[in-house]
UniProtKB/TrEMBL annotation:
Sorted UniProt keywords: Transferase
Chain's gene name: Ate1
Pfam families in the record: ATE_C (PF04377)
InterPro entries found in the cross-reference section: N-end_Aminoacyl_Trfase, N-end_Aminoacyl_Trfase_C
Source superkingdom: Eukaryota
Protein's name in the database: ATE1 transferase
Species of the source: Steatornis caripensis
Keyword flag Transferase: yes
Domain N-end rule aminoacyl transferase C-terminal: 65-160
GO MF annotation: an example: arginyl-tRNA--protein transferase activity
Gene Ontology cellular component list: cytoplasm
Amino acid sequence: LKVRVVRSSPPSSQFKATFQESYQVYKRYQMAIHKDPPDKPTINQVRLVPVSFEDPQFKSSFSQSAALFAKYQMAIHKDTPSDCGENEFTRFLCDSPLEAENAPNGPECGYGSFHQQYWLDGKIIAVGVIDILPYCVSSVYLYYDPAYSFLSLGVYSALR
């Protein structure tokens, strides 16, 4: 048995080189021990989209995200449709006081507010609203399609 400690933040070259293999071990573990289904979202099904109406990915997924937010709010929090329309969604989860910044020694995506979208079969099934800051990532909110609650996407998002 050989045990190696590899720096994950900032990611070392060893971490990057072994990431996929480590991820596959994690996935097998989750399926065997926690009975996660094999179709739980994978790393390739998660998109980090800057919260900006100038960003093409954000604009093209806005309506789908807003509709999912409304579905979640009504099912989980028993909100009325008027409590979770596109204006409420924008005010609550899109308007941010943070300004986007791309620092030379910062993360590739930059700093600011993001929607971490979880896609399955061409549709968004969950969105984690996060702020990426110089010394931390702050989870602002997570909403998901209640039909996929069996995937424990809140736990998955927190671990991710």
